[in-house]
Design brief:
The complex is a heterodimer of chains A (134) and B (285).
Chain A lengths: L3 E7 L2 E8 L1 E6 L2 E5 L6 E14 L2 E7 L3 E5 L2 E5 L3 E3 L5 H17 L4 H22 L2
Parallel strand pairs in A: 1-8
Antiparallel strand pairs in A: 1-2, 3-4, 3-5, 5-6, 5-7, 6-9, 7-8
Helix pairs in contact in A: 1-2
Chain B lengths: L3 H56 L16 E6 L9 H16 L6 E6 L1 H9 L4 E5 L8 H16 L5 E11 L2 E10 L14 E2 L3 H76 L1
Parallel strand pairs in B: 1-2, 1-4, 2-3
Antiparallel strand pairs in B: 4-5
Helix pairs in contact in B: 1-5, 4-5
Classes of the chains: A alpha+beta (134), B alpha/beta (285).
């Protein structure tokens, strides 16, 4: 089966690099599946998981937003932070989740902080759910 | 002439100092290597995001985004990156002096510019001179991760977007090699000259070019700030390493000079004692 090169890069360095058969992820406009030979495309991503399918094996990468760039032979994901499911620190994600929830409860007033806490909560939940899949 | 004991104690204290500077030199050398590696790890992300941004910005003419449009300049923002601690030779003073002179020559009043300071030295320098420091961050670790700088970077980009200032310059020290560090001025916003070496690809946009630029451009500008910070950190450690190496060398010179003086004084004392004994013996005969 044909494969496509995938790389997930963050400012702190490359996170994932490999050849896979299919990439599926959640763009802001909806779920996206990419197979080898896709036309060049750019799409912003939601906070969520990237599923990388290779034969019978499926790997998960948690991304906090960012951008998906597709070329016929290569997919690059540019995110400000990303983790492969094996390297997620569940403890830390749980703590972050608690913190964000507390903040959401006490801060209905400041709109900006509320939004930030909401984002943090989303990221934490995303990490936890991906860590469960490994 | 100083007494033997005075010289001896000076030698010991200089030796102690040189031990400290030597240790600091080695620590900085290790940190510099790490910083260089961090800067290298960042390169793939930067080239990629540059490629995509250039492709979109040039490939689709007529796309409007506040970060791309130049507007009449009423207020200028300056981001300056320094260290938190001194003992790094001319590292801080070089970048601060250059920015200070630029501001003096470009602006007449404090209303025309605003400073965003990264690092304690820069913050204190400009606060002391009564210049407007609107944002500052101190205590950036030696190996900064993107998450730590994201807050200030996105605030800075946000301030440009809501027209707190109309252009933004970045002042930092570019790391060329361990012995060559260049103070660099870079125009960050508006993004007017996005260039890329890679070939331009024409993309399909999902949902549209405008919405992608909304996500991409702030991310691009923030990563430019982060890149400059990594560069500056490598420079800081290189500067500190060189400064500490010079200090160690000077201490060693001082010690060898003092040892010479000490030995001479000791010899003189011995000679004098012998003369006294011989003189005393001669007087008894």
């Amino acid at each position: 089966m044909k494969t496509i090169k995938v790389s997930v890069v963050t400012p702190d360095g490359p996170v994932y690099e490999s050849e896979v058969e299919m990439v599926s992820t959640k763009a802001q406009s909806g779920e996206l599946g990419i197979l080898p030979g896709h036309i060049p495309m750019v799409a912003p991503l939601q906070i969520g998981s990237v599923r990388l399918k290779n034969g019978a094996k499926t790997e998960y990468v948690a991304v906090s937003g960012g951008l998906l760039e597709v070329r016929p032979d290569q997919v690059s994901i540019l995110a400000q932070s990303a983790e492969v499911s094996d390297s997620i620190d569940v403890e830390r994600a749980l703590r972050a989740k608690q913190r964000a929830e507390e903040r959401l409860r006490e801060q209905q007033r400041a709109h900006v902080d509320f939004k930030r806490a909401e984002m943090a909560l989303q990221r934490a939940i995303n990490r936890i759910s991906i860590a469960e899949k490994r | 002439m100083a007494s033997l004991r005075d010289i001896k104690s000076r030698i010991t204290s200089t030796k102690k100092t040189s031990q400290i500077t030597k240790a600091m030199q080695m620590v900085s050398a290790a940190k510099m290597n790490r910083a260089e590696m961090n800067a290298k790890a960042f390169v793939p992300y930067m080239t990629k995001i540059q490629e995509v941004t250039a492709s979109i910005a040039q490939g689709s003419k007529g796309v409007q985004n506040p970060l791309l449009t130049s507007r009449p300049v009423k207020k200028t923002g300056y981001v300056v990156i320094s260290s938190d601690r001194g003992l790094a030779g001319a590292y801080n003073s070089n970048v601060l002096r250059q920015l200070f002179n630029t501001i003096k020559s470009r602006h007449k009043s404090n209303d025309e510019f605003a400073i965003i300071a990264i690092g304690r030295v820069a913050r204190d320098f400009f606060k002391k001179r009564n210049m407007p420091v609107i944002l500052d961050i101190i205590g950036v670790p030696d190996q900064p991760s993107f998450a730590e700088i994201k807050d200030i970077a996105s605030k800075t980009v946000g301030m440009f977007a809501d027209e707190t200032f109309d252009e933004l310059f970045l002042y930092y020290t570019h790391y060329v090699s361990a012995i060559q560090l260049d103070v660099t001025e870079k125009k960050l916003l508006p993004l007017t000259d996005i260039k890329s070496e890679g070939k331009l690809t024409s993309y399909e946009f999902e949902p549209s070019a405008e919405e992608i630029l909304d996500v991409l451009l702030p991310q691009y500008a923030e990563s430019l700030i982060y890149g400059a910070l990594l560069d500056s950190k490598a420079s800081e450690h290189a500067a500190r390493m060189t400064a500490m190496k010079n200090a160690t060398d000077n201490a060693n010179d001082l010690i060898s000079n003092l040892s010479l003086v000490y030995n001479r004084a000791r010899q003189a004392a011995i000679t004098q004692e012998i003369t006294e004994i011989v003189g005393g013996a001669a007087a008894l005969e």
